[in-house]
Amino acid sequence: MEASARDVIVVGSGNAALCAAMAARETGARVTVLEKAPEHFRGGNSYFTAGGFRFAYNGLDDIRRLIPDLSDDEVRNIDVGRYDQAKFYEDLMRVTEGLSDPGLADTLVSRSFPTMDWLRERGMRWVLMFGRQAFKVGEITRFWGGMIVEAIGAGKGLIDREFELCEAMGIEIRYDAKAVGLLMNRRGVVEGLTAQIDGERQDLTAGAIVLACGGFEANPEMRTRYLGQGWELAKVRGTRYNTGDGIRMALEAGAQPFGHWSGAHAVAWDLNAPPFGDRTIADLFQKHSYPFGLIVNVNGDRFVDEGADFRNYTYAKYGRELLRQPERAGFQLFDQKVIHLLRDEYHIAQVTKAESQTLRGLAEQLGIDAGGLERTVSEYNDAVQPGEFNPAVLDAKHTEGIEPPKSNWALPLDSPPYVGYAVTCGVTFTFGGLRILPATGQVLDTEDRPMPGLYAAGELVGGLFYYNYAGGSGLMAGAVFGRIAGAAAGAASRTAAAV
Fold first, then answer.
1. CA dist., res. 131 & res. 263, Å (int)
2. Is residue 18 located within the same domain as residue 147?
3. Helices 102-122 and 15-26: angle between axes, nearest 10 degrees
4. Does residue 258 lie in a domain region?
């Protein structure tokens, strides 16, 4: 491709990158997407998600705007509630211990619904998350937890559709194209990048660059350096191609590191899952129904409050706790009272599972200390307090007198056969990255000055997530800041071309 034929280069091909590419193209810019992976591995981490988006909405009318084909019968039998901007902002700040950058957080929250509507107008289609984010209470299906909508076809459907939209807009997509360094002139303006394509390095010029190629979760050296000892042993939930290249290139050019560099989104992942994500299984190695059971380690000891909150607000930090346990293993245990509540991922063939009429038998099958497990369950059962169990709300049915407590959904584990699932830590994405201007997505240097020609979006933007994460806010942030960065990059590139 000739240098004069492109205005914007987008690095990466996940949700954030493709939203950036579409937004840049809407300005009239000529856009090229560079993807390090071969075509059959395209889509970054977004491919491995459930396709769920967290956004602010004021009630059923907003949901019907996004999903206009909801029937009147469906509407009569659902309760989507209301999740306004104040609640979204409050949840984000609560789970990040008040550390989320206010400018980023406010932009994410305020631009969330308009961005969902923008994607709908482009041709994205959504459905309600009946299987993951709803429980039937009486005759009504009640949605909970602030994340109730997903792309049709989950992560794969999201990515496939976004590629269709990009291709229809005339956006060039190049695979096996690894960006290795930024090109800057003597005035510090980013004018392009060096990429390795077809086995050789090429300099590609452009009016603006958008980095949207993920964090460093697939780089064991960087995980160990920044996240700490033992993180090289974690399994990677998603793509093997997110090795921190975009972050490294930007830092080498003088960009400002920002955010929680020792933090990551990490979940309960099947103990025997492969080292990297399997595109056939996608996100189904995750195990996220633990609020309705117990989690123990190989000694039979509990180590987290399984019912601290809706799983949306705890699952992304409990992976770290698994990594700290002996043999980096945990075991989610359930009895027959709650088996019907388990999510779809518990029913796949590729699962590390045991079942027994006795706790001792379950322990022996899973490799848990039997005496320790029997003692833990006995103490837990004695600590369960009376109350009404309701999976659709924080029901305050709790324990007393044990550590850790179980704050909600505490039912005795006493109805065999017992079922157990072996899990370990699966890292999704890292929280540390680059500092950007929320209004434009432009990358800032170490003196807080905008870097001309350089924009960023997605997982490699730091400052939004600390310690924890609210489910569905990653894809939403990718779309919001991808759209912002792409639009700004497109406008800047067109202005530069006119000078």
1. 29
2. yes
3. 70
4. no
Interior angle at CA 237, CA 157 and CA 442, nearest 5: 75
Question: Which ranges of 274-345 does DSSP label H, i.e. alpha helix?
Answer: 315-323
- Is pLDDT at 297 greater than 60 in this prediction? yes
Confidence of residue 199 (pLDDT cuts 50, 70, 90): confident
Averaged pLDDT, 21-35: 98
Contact between residue 369 and residue 463 where contact means Cβ atoms under 8 Å apart: no
Alpha-carbon gap, residue 240 to 498, rounded angstroms = 40
Contact 373, 300 (CB under 8 A): yes
Q: Is residue 247 in some structural domain?
A: no
Does residue 255 lie in a domain region?
no
Identify the CATH number of the domain in which residue 76 sits.
Answer: 3.50.50.60
Is the Cα torsion angle 489, 494, 497, 499 positive or negative in sign?
Answer: negative
- Other CB atoms within a 10 A radius of the CB of residue 327 amount to 10
What per-residue confidence (pLDDT) applies to 198? 86
pLDDT in tens, 323-361: 999 999 999 999 999 999 999 999 999 999 999 999 999
List the Cα angle 452/456/459 in 5-degree steps: 160
Q: What is the per-residue burial (b if ≥16 Cβ within 10 Å, else e) of 282-316?
A: bbbbbbbbbbbbbbbbbebbbbbbbbbbbbbbbbb
User: What is the rounded CA–CA span in Å between residue 98 and residue 90?
Assistant: 9
User: Structure pTM?
Assistant: 0.94
Report the Cα–Cα distance between both ends of the chain, in Å, rounded.
22
Burial class for 73, CB neighbours closer than 10 Å (0-12, 13-18, 19+): exposed
Paired strand residues for 429: 265
What token pair was written down for 452? 């001309």
Domain of 421 in residue numbering reads as 265-426
Q: What letter represents residue 395's amino acid?
A: D
Is the pLDDT assigned to residue 4 strictly greater than 50? Answer: no
